Amino acid sequence: MTQTSEWIDTNDKLKTVCDQLLGLTTLAVDTEFIRTDTFYPKIALIQLSNGQQCWLIDVLAIDQFSPLKALLESPHLTLIFHACAEDLEVLDYGLDIQPRNIFDTQIAAGLINLGYNMGYARLVESFFDIQLDKQETRSNWLARPLSQRQLDYAQIDVIYLHRLHRELSTLLADQKRHKWFNEEMRSLFALVESRKNPTDYYLRIKGAWRLNGQSLRVLNHLCCWRENIARTKDKPRSRIIKDTVLLDIAKQLPITKQQLFGIEDWYPSSIKRHGDSVLQEIQVGQQQPPLAPLPQPLGKEMTTVMKSIRKALASVAKDQQIPPEFLCNKKELEDILRSSLQGSCRWPSRLTEGWRRLWVKPTIESVLTTANLL
Fold first, then answer.
1. Could you tell me which residues come within 8 angstroms of residue 160 by beta carbon, excluding any fewer than 6 positions away?
2. How many whole angstroms separate alpha carbon 217 and alpha carbon 250?
């Protein structure tokens, strides 16, 4: 399949294209960006396709994006993406564009049981028996001019999305899963929105559950302090201070700069740059309000129950012809098991509402009852 493509590198060209596309009902979209050395993604290219033609928008050469914002936020236009979570973040931060009417081909493929988190190339191959060249995935999209291989790759990323949309929409309708799909898209938007909140980053640090109350407060405060620096300087968190270093600092609670040099894997140059501030932030962190203790890993008995639940859910997934990963994730199961041990089982809302309520919650309840946890 071939499409003609047009390079868009002026404000006037962008406005002309956006005005031309405003009357469409569907539009394929993808983005190319770099995020290796910065906190925020650096958007470099946006690809649009109407199914016959492709437009490659040179973000670096344009400074008036209001026509594009009006187009991509149009309530009358469905945007076709594949695995759009990062694309939504990039468009939001880079261009203040927040699309809401989206068809994600990766989510649709999962709901019709083609595979969980299937990549674009595999999905194209499974439908059309076409193998795509994806070698330019990690190339430098901020370089100019782009190579012909990069241009070809960028076009390929949207060229099949309209065909996928038609095929997947038909299968969703045949399996009566369009409502499921809409529910999953709402969950996706909620997930993307939640990533903007940095206040609970300490919960992601492996081993934080071992800390006592004082050290946990310090870890949380240091994570917030680092987050502010990373965002202000637009540097990856690990380029400021690594997670493992913050954890060791919170464990040891050093009070002198000399003690900081004993922190494993913290480079002397970084200590010289941030050491005095860290010592001050440790003192501030110790004065913060108490935090709820983090849950310990499940014990052997609960791990056995977890395996039983997963086995039962795998059977449900097989019966309903859907990837088991779509039914319930590990964190949800752990939270359910911990709350059941406390005598009051708490259920995530997505297991008590929507399509999952028919199978997931009853299946888990049955296993918990057998294990005398309900």
1. 1, 124, 128, 130
2. 8
Tell how strand 102-104 and strand 78-81 pair up.
parallel
pLDDT tens digits, residue range 279-302?
Answer: 999 999 999 999 999 999 999 999
What DSSP element (H or E) covers 178? helix 178-194
**CB count, 10 Å around CB of 154?**
23
pLDDT of residue 26: 98
Q: What is the DSSP letter of 5?
A: E
Q: Which residues pair with 55 in a beta bridge?
A: 6, 48
DSSP, res 50: -
Residue 300 token pair: 């052997």
Percent of the chain, pLDDT > 70?
98
CA distance 53 to 3: 5
Q: Distance between CA 215 and CA 221 in Å, rounded?
A: 10
Task: Tokens for 53, please give them.
Answer: 């033609």
Half-sphere exposure (CA, 13 Å, Cβ side) for 223? Answer: 21
CA–centroid distance for 223 within its chain: 20
Neighbours of 153 (CB within 10 A): 21
- Contact between residue 292 and residue 314 where contact means Cβ atoms under 8 Å apart: no
H helix intervals, the chain: 11-21, 66-72, 85-95, 105-111, 120-128, 148-159, 161-174, 178-194, 213-233, 237-240, 243-252, 257-260, 268-286, 300-320, 330-341, 349-352, 360-370
34 neighbors 41 (Cβ within 8 angstroms): yes
Sequence-ordered strand ranges (E) for 196-318: none
Q: Give the sign of the dihedral formed by CA 100, CA 102, CA 106, CA 107.
A: positive
**Taking Cα atoms as reference points, which of 266, 316, 361, 2 lies closest to residue 152?**
2
Total residue count of the chain as it appears in this document = 374
Cis amide bond preceding 75, omega within 30: no
Identify each DSSP E strand in the chain by its residue range.
Answer: 4-8, 26-34, 42-49, 53-58, 78-81, 102-104
Q: How far apart are CA 359 and CA 282, in angstroms?
A: 48
Query: In Å, how far are 61, 110, 136, 158, 280 from 139, measured between CA atoms?
Result: 19, 28, 5, 18, 41
The reported pTM is: 0.92
Q: How far apart are CA 349 and CA 342, in angstroms?
A: 19
> Which of these, 296, 359, 323, lies nearest to 367 by C-alpha position?
359
